[in-house]
Amino acid sequence: MPPKKLLTVGSRAPSFTLKDAAGNAVSLKDFRGKKSVVLIFYPGDMTPGCTMQLCAIRDDWRKFAGTAVYGVNHADADSHNKFAKKFGLPFPLLIDKGKKVSARYGAIKQFFKARIIKRTVVGIGKDGRIFFLRRGMPKNSDILKAVASIV
């Protein structure tokens, strides 16, 4: 299910409210005018590529100071909690049950009959506009350079 309008850098980010693994509601609107947000859409907890991607963010965590960072996928709280604990992830993982938010951000691909979350990193500024949008596993240096450019 592709987004109604293709998102690009400069687009207004689709609003969302998702729960994190601790049960707290996280809404994009709560960051408006306060803090930039980086969303890391990833296919699965405990998978090799996803672990590598999220651990790379963990390893550069201090460089992301002042930015709200969230991993996003469809797994439940138990799966997210185990994944975060095992790898010491310092940022929350959001539960996108039904993959609706992932679809709104264009982070879904069809694989035969299955809808799979496609690796996508989205940076959203305090103004609610997308300043970074890249599929796959962009280097942290590229994400951080984009974050620094909007501060």
SSE pattern, N- to C-terminal:
EEEHEHEHEEEEH
Amino-to-carboxy terminus distance: 33 Å
Q: Work out the helicity level.
A: 25-40%
Low-confidence stretches: none
Number of helices: 4
CATH topology: Glutaredoxin
- The strand order across the widest sheet is 2-1-5-4-3-8-9
Quantity of strands, as a count:
9
Which structural class matches the secondary elements? alpha+beta
Globally, the shape reads globular
Radius of gyration: 14 Å
Mean pLDDT: 93
CATH architecture: 3-Layer(aba) Sandwich
CATH class: Alpha Beta
Please, how many domains?
1
CATH H-level homologous superfamily name: Glutaredoxin
Spell out the key features of this protein:
Glutaredoxin, seven-stranded mixed β-sheet, 151 residues, 4 helices, alpha+beta, globular, two-stranded antiparallel ribbon, 9 strands
Strand and helix layout:
Elements: E1 17-20, E2 25-27, E3 36-41, H1 48-59, E4 67-73, H2 77-87, E5 93-95, H3 100-104, E6 108-111, E7 114-117, E8 120-124, E9 130-135, H4 140-150
Parallel strand pairs: 3-4, 4-5
Antiparallel strand pairs: 1-2, 1-5, 3-8, 6-7, 8-9
